[in-house]
Predict the structure.
Amino acid sequence: MKEFIKRNSPVFVIGTFTAIIFIVLTIVSQFKKQSNTNLIPLTDNQIKIMEEPAPKTLPVAEEIDSKYGPLEIEYTTEGFNPKNTKSYQNQLIKWTNKTDTAITMQAVTKTHKDFPNEVEIKPGETFEFRLTKPKLWSYQQKDNTKMFGTIFVLEN
């Protein structure tokens, strides 16, 4: 043990010296006179207001429609076109069935609770929906999961 202490004495000296400096600085900082600042203390109500962000309001549907127009998605024998696209919050999305058979579309991601579990779109008909949450949203044809699409909903 004596040999260990003798061999590592420089480490112990440095550690002791560092501890002494730390203790001295801690004691000096406790007795240091507080400087006068021009800060005004906040009330609890002011702090609460600062912590709560103002609720963000979405632009109304008419503003979005006039700015971007509806997003048109066609379903053909090759699937949804465009397959992957983007839209904006509250933008109108229109899915049109361009085939000669009815399709049943369903959401893969349940981001929008008011989206129906299944939507049947008959040949030549269109289904419309507004996506209100900024997130990646996926959908597919119920009986053919190879026929799917995604919409990345961007925040306004």
